[in-house]
Q: What sequence folds into this?
């Protein structure tokens, strides 16, 4: 009886670890695919990626963009903008900007923690830290995105 009980516990733990690995692989795959799609110069591919990989709630959510620029004269310019009512269109516009900045970007590191992936993408001129938050249930769609970029 002890033997059977031990097997059941080990099987349950193995299933849990396997499910976690599967979630991590899916999250990493979506993150890598996002970088690949950003490199494309095709709005329809961006839109397709967004529809297939973002949650509906995230697609509908308004976006905020905050741009901080510092010039050599020690002046700082800050601008903020919020997306318009057509949030799919705003997400596609975000991909257009990401394409302009990271179209030739390469993934330097990718780290998965719980329901988040932190990914560093480098270009010749720019380094970007992408933080993707995923839902905790299958199909593990992207439910949040933060991007910090600088030299």
A:
């Amino acid at each position: 009886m002890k033997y059977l009980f031990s097997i059941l516990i080990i099987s349950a733990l193995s299933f849990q670890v396997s499910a976690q690995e599967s979630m991590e692989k899916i999250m990493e795959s979506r993150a890598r695919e996002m970088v690949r799609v950003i490199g494309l110069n095709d709005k329809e591919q961006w839109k397709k990626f967004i529809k297939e990989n973002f949650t509906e709630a995230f697609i509908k959510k308004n976006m905020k963009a905050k741009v901080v620029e510092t010039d050599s004269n020690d002046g700082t310019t800050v601008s903020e903008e919020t997306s318009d009512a057509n949030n799919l269109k705003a997400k596609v516009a975000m991909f257009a900007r990401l394409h302009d900045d990271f179209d030739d970007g390469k993934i330097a590191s990718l780290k998965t923690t719980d329901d988040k992936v932190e990914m560093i993408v480098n270009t010749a001129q720019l380094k970007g830290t992408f933080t993707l938050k995923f839902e905790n249930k299958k199909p593990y769609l992207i439910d949040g995105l933060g991007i910090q970029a600088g030299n």
About this structure: Residues 130 and 150 are 12 Å apart (CA to CA). The mean pLDDT is 84. The longest helix spans residues 2-38. The longest strand covers residues 142-150.
